[in-house]
Amino acid sequence: MAAIMRGVMIVAIFASFASVAFATAGQATFYTQYTPSSCYGNQDMGTMIAAVSADIFQNKAACGRMYTVTCTSGTNLGVPMPCRGGSVTVKVVDLCPGCSANGFDLSQEAFSVIADPNEGRININYVPA
């Protein structure tokens, strides 16, 4: 029985490394005007949404895709430890033309789940949900 439990633990440890290894690093900001969006026009898609950089958006191919976003650190000296722990899952609804590669412009509500909005810009990891 101990050998089985040890095997399960080893598999669990390697599985946790795999999820981190496949995450993509980027940066996130937040915005507050959610409509209209280039994917859904004036349709309200809720508040757990994001606009993404052109490399992710791919001329609307990313519309409706879900991503899980995790704050990894702040980018300035505004807030010493802005990350709140945990992750948030958002739906792509728009293009963020001002975002750098691998950039997310999260709704203010989504940003607030993972970081202090006073930071304004954070480093993130993201994976498809």
TrEMBL record:
The protein's superkingdom reads: Eukaryota
PROSITE patterns in the cross-refs: EXPANSIN_EG45
Stretch forming the signal peptide:
1-23
Q: Which SUPFAM superfamilies match?
A: Barwin-like endoglucanases
The record's subcellular location field reads: Secreted
- One Pfam family cited in the UniProt record for this chain: DPBB_1
Q: Which processes are annotated in GO (biological process)?
A: systemic acquired resistance
The reply to whether Ubl conjugation figures as a keyword in the UniProt entry is no
Query: Can the keyword DNA-binding be found in this entry's annotation?
Result: no
Tell me where in this chain the Expansin-like EG45 domain is found: 26-129
Q: What is its main location?
A: secreted
Q: What is this protein called?
A: Expansin-like EG45 domain-containing protein
